[in-house]
Fold this protein.
Amino acid sequence: MEKGDNHKALPQPTVRRYPVYLRAIRAKRARGESLVSSAALAAELGLDPVLVRKDLAMSGVPGRPRLGWSAQALETALAAAIGWNHPAEAALVGAGSLGKALMGYGGFREQGLSIAVAFDSNPDVAGHEFHGVKILPATELKRKVRRLSLRLGILTVPAHVAQACADALVEAGIRGIWNFAPVRLSLPDGVVVQNMDLAQSLAVLSHSIR
């Protein structure tokens, strides 16, 4: 298997753990550490050492017995596996409180994401700029997304308009949607959707602390 193709075969649970490993590895490098031990990484993150060793082995970076992995090589390989080595530009739909919070989050650049443009149907919002991101009227969505050749969309709109907004994004060429709207979207095959249901997360948290 070619190293550049590793991400295609990664199990989803491994993909979800890679960002956690990346943060820890970057912190180690910042402290001047050049090697990563799966046992030490597992202890630091509270994970099973066997699981961590298998995850790191899937990166394609060879480890050295009793020494571990090169921190620099692992950082590069893990970032490439989840697509963080080539920054992706996204279109955000819904420049309300949540949308603006995402536009203002500086950590996305470390994770290979840049919000190129935002859209909103509110005339009091459209036409303004927030954290360097231009907010355009929703009527310009298809034209602008096509012109910028964007492939990633972020939905932070109310539930009752989420499907229509998602359909417009797909028609404009979007192939992946990060959905923060509290609704399940019905989209064509080949369009990937990652749902972020804040109500579900809060319910789990509230139940756990009772």
Notes: Residues 3-81 form a domain with the Arc Repressor Mutant, subunit A fold (CATH 1.10.10.10). The chain has two domains: 3-81, 88-202. The mean pLDDT is 90. The first helix runs from residue 6 to 9.
